[in-house]
Amino acid sequence: QIVYQYLTAMEKAKEMQGLDTGIIRMGTIASISEHWLPGLLKEFQKQYPKVEFVLHQGDYMTIPEWIKTGAVDFGFVNPKAVSGLNTITLKDGAMLAVLPENHPLAEMDIIPLSMIANESYILMETGNYYEPMEAFKSVGVTPNIKYTIHDDYSIMAMVEAGLGVSILAELILKHTNYQIVLRPTDPPVTRTISIGYKSNAHLPIASKRFIEFIRAHINELP
């Protein structure tokens, strides 16, 4: 924390001098890192080429802790999974059932959660909040969890191998080469993507500018 406070003080000094420099430390999740950040960083650095980025990839449990300890200035979070932080809602995204190609349920256009619950389920470990589990609870069923994994791509590989089914964010499923089938569920499962931060006073000017930049371009993002 001493190091983070020192860096923050240095960045505040640069702000007072009016320099367009600084370090942006953010906590991010895999789907955002792959499908949002490359384009955002490229365009932002056209305006602020001296700004440095430090990205920490985590989940709904680790990112809020990084924000609270000062390891990152802000991060992408689900507002329902955090407490004690300010949040800015950016976008709602669909989550889809992920099935092996030859799975019987793959013949359906929309799959009831009650039917998914009867299959071997591969759980995405995200900490203390997981949207599909909340959706299962809403219809009064409990999935038959066989595997718990912390990586989206490992889950896709296991589904492809026929080890089970899962529900993942539509964003992470874009442009994948896995031999899997994607289907919407009944009821639909969605996740909310927000920016979490401690307070405006804790945000360096570079991070504030990047957050404003994200909000200005949110309708262009998948």
Give me the secondary-structure topology:
Layout: H1 2-17, E1 22-28, H2 30-35, H3 37-47, E2 51-57, H4 62-69, E3 74-77, E4 86-100, E5 111-112, H5 113-116, E6 120-124, H6 131-138, E7 144-149, H7 152-160, E8 166-169, E9 180-183, E10 185-186, E11 189-197, H8 205-216
Parallel strand pairs: 1-2, 1-3, 5-10, 6-7
Antiparallel strand pairs: 3-11, 4-8, 4-9, 4-11
General description of the model:
The protein is α/β, with parallel strands linked by helices. Helix content is 33%, strand content 29%. The protein contains eight helices and eleven strands. Strands 1, 2, 3, 4, 8, 9 and 11 form a seven-stranded mixed sheet that branches. A two-stranded parallel sheet has the order 5-10. Strands 6-7 form a two-stranded parallel ribbon. Strand 6, helix 6 and strand 7 form a beta-alpha-beta unit. The two termini are 35 Å apart. The model has no long low-confidence stretch (mean pLDDT 91).
Nutshell version of this structure?
With 222 residues, the protein is α/β, with parallel strands linked by helices. The chain has eight helices and eleven strands. It starts with a helix and ends in a 6-residue tail after the last helix.
| Arithmetic mean of pLDDT | 91
Principal-axis shape equals elongated
Cα distance, first to last residue? Answer: 35 Å
Specify Rg, calculated over alpha carbons: 19 Å
The poorly predicted ranges are none
H and E string = HEHHEHEEEHEHEHEEEEH
Biggest β-sheet, characterized? 7 strands, mixed
| Share of β-strand residues | 25-35%
Task: Give the proportion of residues in helices.
Answer: 25-40%
